[in-house]
Structures are given as structure tokens and as C-alpha cells.
């Protein structure tokens, strides 16, 4: 009877209740009413941090009616149409009551329900009135139940009519204290923590984990506001989020870091040599902000494909196939990748009106109060990193890791507050692997910011990071150190500086050899970043990187790792020395196989890039080997139609070389197929 809505299916304080259909049988309706009533009565008063009185009297009234519904059902009484109609109205009201109780007890929503206390009280009042109205018109005399049961129904109706539904005075006082604290922050004044402690006590937010649940909930609500393009409450939500971040960092000194170890491990980042071209819409050629997939399996930006469909087109713009349905399926995985890519490089997804607000909003604070809250918190954490106990320093680094995870403004505040140097010192002094993981993870998040990279290098952070890469107390710490190397290598002068440190490339190669899949990926992309400086090419080649990449191609089934490894090989192949080293391996038999069989478009495009460079730099001998592979041309044709503009251009160039080879091989002019050996600039 009632649809079970997941919390992600509906918005807070929105009640998608439905009236039972007219053709429903009385028996089915009664069974559903009993189930609904039982679910509502299972809510215990202790679950409510606010709205306790309103919830208690609503549950009590429905508990009285539950006895009535159960006896009516058990007696199998015949019900008139008028009774069924009243029961339908009660069913509709009960659905809304259940939704309201779900929201009032939702994990992490205590502060938000307090803020919405007037709205919630109004909802309780409206629902109790609806129950009273339905009971007033219920022809109780036509229902043959016991006198005592009828008296219970009359009592429930009387209580519903006379119910006094209002905001609890304690809730009102706590609400005013929240507004006072936010007002202080907005004026640049750090409030007395005792005010907020009283609010937290009232809401039964008693520890770090409780506070963190509130933060996660508020972050979800902000994301929903932006995804719904209804941002009216987003600034206020941002102020509350900043307040809870401040409370978690400043007020809750005690934290059970042992229970959060798994969280730290799960946050280990696996980097990728992401090709931004993969994020462009085939129609507009702009970065996609809302990617959707059509029935042919192709992905487009929503606004572009909608304009295409509105113009009356029902063929897929890329493949030319007829679309079996105009339905657009959100590609949430790709959207998250685009958001993460934009966050990492610190740019917006688009400068157009449909820009990625998810990214743009993190560049600046969500509200003036949120800005001040973050600044006060950053300074507090910086002081803790310098003057705190060993446990307090580790906890401060843990907070920084959370705050800087996906928020550009937070990163800038933390860097300006001076957290990087003490984080480096903590990294150098850590003798316990968990503390080292937290410190290196915090530095990793800050290294994504432009000023963070500069601060790390200028504060002498490169040496301790390299020490962790070599001798880290855990594999996870080494993996994160490799990720920092990748971000630092995005700055041109640092590529040379890092590459000239003798142990860097060999250590990264060891990580690729012995690490987990995540470790291998981070080692591979760190080398990719270093290869952007031509002086590092010979170091990479002489460290045995190419044979390791060949091992990955032969043994790994991870598409992303293979694609990233091919990106490194493509960078190596652009130099003549790199090509010659590649030709010493079995690359010319392995890479065409990847081109034929890989499901990853990036892997196929990098495969073609490698083959093209090998043909250009390796002379006729290399191209003659490829020319013998009769399946290669068909693979290139597929990429020509399905690939990105980058991949298609590479496929076209390789096809021209192969065609020219076949045309000239019979005339003995093979040497003219490819140009003379020449240096190639690293891209």
C-alpha cells in the first residue's frame, strides 16, 4: 500500500503520500493501516532530540487507533463506502506522519530539525487536524466493534481536536542560541564555546562522531540544493556546516582515532592520468556539467542533447543510430569524475551559465559566517599543530584532512593559517604509522591547492615526503607520498627539482613493482608528471620503468591502471631514446592487443599514441612489424569513429602511415614512409 521511500528518494520535510485507489479492497486497506500504525508506534520518545511533546502525543493518538484497526480487521467486518473513505483519509495522513517522524529522527539531522522547528510544528499541527477531521466524519455507529474500542476512538478524536501543538520552549531557546552564535561569527567575533555546548547538549550531540554525522547530513543537503537548482537555503546551510566543522574541531577534543582507521585507509587516493578530452560533450565540445547517457550508450551534456532532441532529431549525434527512447539517464559516475578533476585542478567545469556549481561554490565560502568560522578553525588547528600534545597534533591533522578533502576555500584558509610547516614537522617526527598516514594525507589534500604546492616546497617539505615514499611506516603512507609527488610535478620548476633527486624515480618504480593496485597507479601517475620535464626521460628509462609497464599490460585486469601505464609509455615514446627502449620489449605485440580488446577508450587512444610515436621515431622496421597485423586497421577505424578528437587524430595519422607503407613497400621506397629521426617535444 505505501511505497517504501529511501532517504535519497525524497527531500527533507517533503511527504510524497498517495491516496489509496478507489478500487482497493477494505481488507487490504485495513492491513496497510495496521502496518502503518505499528510502524509509527515503534518510534520511541527517546529518539527525538527536538519536537518530543508533539511526537509523543501524535504517536499516542495513533496507538489508540491501532487497537481499533486491529479489532476491525480481526472481526472481518463489512465496511460501508463511507467508512472506507474515512479510512483512506486516515491512511493518507498516517503516511505523512511516518515521513515526518522519519525526518525528526534521521541520523545527522538534529541541528537542521531544530532550525526548522516552526515548520515541523506546523506539519504536526496540520496532520493532527487531518486525523481529527477524518475521525469527526467517521460513521463509528456503522462499525460493529466493542464499546471499549469505540470509546478509544472517541478519545483519540477528542485528543486530536484539543491537541496543543507548538514549539517546545527549550527548542526555542536552543534555536535563539544558534542564531546568536552565527551572528557573532558573521561579525568576525569568536563566540564563547559554552553557548554552543549548551545547544549540543540539548540536541544530544555528545561526541566527535555525532558531530561528524551532522556535518555529513548538511553537506548532503547543500549538494541537493545545488542539484535541484534551488539555492535559497544554501548560504544558511553553509553557515551551519561551518559551525559544525568548528564544533568538531574545537569543542570535541576526544576522538576515537582507532575506530576511524578504516576511514583513513578508505580515503587513500588512487590517481589517474585523466584526459580532460574525455569530459567534453561530443555536441558542444565543452566540459560536461550534467552528463547523461542516451539509449545508444553515448554520453552527452544534458543541455546539448536536449536541444538536439527538441529540434526533432531522434538519431544519436555521434553514432548516427536511431535512439529507441528519448530517455536521458544521469551518468553519476562520470559526473563525480569531472567534479573531482575540476576540484583537483582548481577550476570550474565551464564558464557558461550551466557551470558546475559543485566546484564553483567551493572556491569561495558559502556565506560570510561560514568564511569566519573556517578562518577561526584554521587558526585553532594551526596552533594545535605547533603547541598541542602528540595526540592533539594528530587530531588536528585529521581535521585538516577532512576539511581540505574537496573544498578549495577551506584549503586556502588552512594554508594561510600556517598549517603546512607544522604538518611537515609532524610527518618527520611521527613514529606511529597511523599518525604518519594522517599527516601525509592532510598534506596531500593541501598539495592540490596552488599555494599549497609552493608552501610545501618552500617549507622544506620535499625531503620528508620523499623519506616517506622510501621508508614510510605503511604502504598507504607511501602511496599518498607518491600522490603528492604527482601534484608537485604539476608545477614546471618542481618537476626538474624532484627529478634531480636521485632516489625519487627508482623509489616510484619500486612502488609500481611491489605496491597494491592503488600504489601502482599513484606511482605510475607520479612518473607521468615527472616526464613532463624532458630531463627526466632518461632517468625514467634507466630505472627499468618500461619492462614494469609491460608486466602491468600482461598481468593486470584494471582498466584504469592499464590506461595510466599507457599514458606513461606514450610520454616515453615521444623521444627517440624512449622509442628505442620500447622496441627492446614485446610492446609491438602487446599494445595492438590492448587496442583490439580494451573496453577503456582512454587505453585505446593511448595505445594508438604509443604506436604512432614508435612508427615516427623507430623507422621502417617498426612500421613493417605493425603492417603485418591485419586486424590493426579495423581497430583504428573503430577509434576513428568512437574516439575523442584527440584519439581520432592519432588514429588517422597512424592509418596514413600504414597506407603509405603498403603503397610504397612494393616499389622499394620504404625508407621514405617515415621522416628522418628527429627530437620530439614532450607534451
UniProtKB/TrEMBL annotation:
Residues 274-348 form the U-box domain. Its EC number is 2.3.2.27. GO terms for molecular function: ubiquitin protein ligase activity. ARM repeats lie at residues 418-461. Gene3D superfamilies: Leucine-rich Repeat Variant, Zinc/RING finger domain, C3HC4 (zinc finger). It holds the Pfam family ARM_PUB. InterPro entries: ARM-like, ARM-type_fold, ARM_PUB, Armadillo, PUB12-19-like_N, RING-Ubox_PUB, Ubox_domain, Znf_RING/FYVE/PHD. Pathway: Protein modification; protein ubiquitination. The keyword NAD does not apply. It catalyses: S-ubiquitinyl-[E2 ubiquitin-conjugating enzyme]-L-cysteine + [acceptor protein]-L-lysine = [E2 ubiquitin-conjugating enzyme]-L-cysteine + N(6)-ubiquitinyl-[acceptor protein]-L-lysine. PROSITE patterns: ARM_REPEAT, U_BOX. The keyword Ribosomal protein does not apply. One of its GO terms (biological process) is regulation of seed germination. Keywords: Repeat, Transferase, Ubl conjugation pathway. PANTHER family: RING-TYPE E3 UBIQUITIN TRANSFERASE, U BOX DOMAIN-CONTAINING. This is RING-type E3 ubiquitin transferase. It comes from Salix udensis.
